Give the backbone structure.
Amino acid sequence: MRHTGSALAAAVALVALSLVAVGACGGDGGGRGGGGTPPPAAAADITGRLSQFSAVADGTTSFLVVADANVSGPYDRAMVRTTADTVVWTLQGEVRRRLAATDLRDGLRVAVRFTGPVAESYPEQAVAAGIEVLPAL
């Protein structure tokens, strides 16, 4: 009977770990094919106007963001590149609508969150984890 208690404890631990794993893989359907977009995980690294937009045949893009004068942050300009993992969205009312990186264009106001290292050049160079298209001021 002594092994029964150990087996039961192991089974409970296995079930608990399985629930944690399923919860970590779940979400709000915000994946590439889903309808929603996950909320931003952190404050934007730069908020400003998009310019010098360039789309590449593989669906990635690059552009310059010039920070809004009234928004403080660590960067006043940044060259930003998107990847297949970059999430682009806009708010329509209270609903987040997913966009493609190729929907971006010069003149849009955006809030960009970086991922990975930021090249300390001027302007800084970074890869976007998330880009929120903001209303015009």
Residues 37 and 101 are 14 Å apart (CA to CA). The two ends are 72 Å apart (CA to CA).
